[in-house]
Amino acid sequence: MERDFNRGDNGRETNQLEKRRFVVFIRGLPGSGKSTLAEGIQQVVGEERSVILDPDLIDYSSGRYLDFSRRLSDQGVDVRFHPYRFLLCRVREELTASRIVLWNQPFSNLEMLEDTISIVETIASQEGLRLELLVVELEVEENLARERIERRIENGGKGPTPTTFNRFLERFESFEGRSEERSCCTFLKLRGEEIDKISIGQVVGLLKQLANEE
Fold first, then answer.
1. pLDDT of residue 42 exceeding 70
2. I need a labelling partner for 38 at 20 to 30 A (CA). Which of 101, 104, 107, 143 fits?
3. What separation in angstroms does the CA of 87 have from each of 58, 102, 112, 125, 170?
């Protein structure tokens, strides 16, 4: 990724990207490399052009989140759904600001993923935006995923308990084939054993391709 994604070889890529709005759903088991991939994509496209949305990155003590959560509670919304609703609110803000949204979450429940895609499509329609959706699915060996989670927790990070991980494992299904039912949704499957310039480049290259399609 030596060249700047925003400049491009012919100087037209930024203009092409401005014509569309992009949401990239990065899904996979905990420990599959989702965060590494999201951060790598952001480094290429630029922090000013993209934002990473992740339930684990929400500052639950911030005044903004507490005010948002309080309003939802007043409306009778279960507190368990407040982080999800908060991220959807962020999606609207970032799309209208022309930033690429990198939504990093396991989405092991396919029904939840499809519902989220439908809501994001509605948001784009309400804002009069032309939307492109990309679902990037990471595959990884179970043992490696567990090892990564253990290392992350040892280093002070967050991670699911073994019991929670097993639940993720039991209900995780591939999204492959389902994107064909949606005209603005593209699917890409990657191996999560080693997230490198090649895998990051595949995602960025696909975004460029989508940006240049009529």
1. yes
2. 143
3. 9, 11, 14, 18, 26
Neighbours of 183 (CB within 10 A): 8
Q: Are 212 and 161 in contact (CB under 8 A)?
A: no
- Distance CA(144)–CA(191), nearest Å, equals 12
Contacts with 66 (C-beta within 8 Å, 6 or more apart), sequence order: 60
Token reading at 85: 């609703």
Contact 37, 138 (CB under 8 A): yes
Angstrom distances, CA of residue 159 to CA of 35, 52, 163: 12, 18, 11
- How far does the chain reach from its first CA to its final CA, in angstroms? 26
- pLDDT given at position 148: 96
pLDDT digits (tens, 9 = 90+) for 118-162: 999 999 999 999 999 999 999 999 999 999 999 999 999 889 999
Is residue 57 a contact partner of residue 40, using CB atoms and an 8 Å limit?
no
Instruction: Give pTM, 2 decimals.
Output: 0.89
Domains in the chain and their CATH numbers? 13-55+100-212 (3.40.50.300)
CA angle 36, 37, 41 (to 5 degrees): 120
Is pLDDT at 4 greater than 90 in this prediction? no
What is the spatial distance between Cα 92 and Cα 129, in angstroms, rounded to a whole number? 10
